[in-house]
Amino acid sequence: MNIFYLLASAAQQGSGAQAGKGSSVSMLVLMGALFAVMYFVMIRPQKKKQQEEQNMRDNIQVGDEVTTIGGIMGRVVTVKEDSLVIETGADRNKMKIARWAISQNNTANEKAEAERQAAKEAAEAEKQKKLEDAAEESKAKRKKSKKNKDDTFDN
Q1: Which of 20, 44, 72, 78 could pair with 85 in a Cys bridge, judged by C-beta atoms 3.0 to 4.6 Å apart?
Q2: What is the pTM of this model?
């Protein structure tokens, strides 16, 4: 809301009889900054999301489980340039759908989730190994320290 107030006040100052080059330049800078903010907040993330969706649709293969924008789930049987044939239900009904109507590739999502889970487990295992190594090292240092104390008292 403050941005609109600044724009209104800048416009009022620019419309007065004393309007100079400084106020018009500041108005252009303000408009440029506003456009930059709008671009990075709204336009860029939307383009990125559309690109990811297009890549997902382009990488669909025979055998993938997909969900359409209408909520129909099925397994891809045939892949063509701009359409797909999917099997749905227990009686294996076949439906031809447009590529743009694919909402999710469930097989790819499951693979990505499995990879994330494997990476998480590997990180957890590595963390556990580091903890065990640190405990062993600490135990060895205590044993060595105790031995040095005993040797000092023996002399």
Answers
A1: 78
A2: 0.54
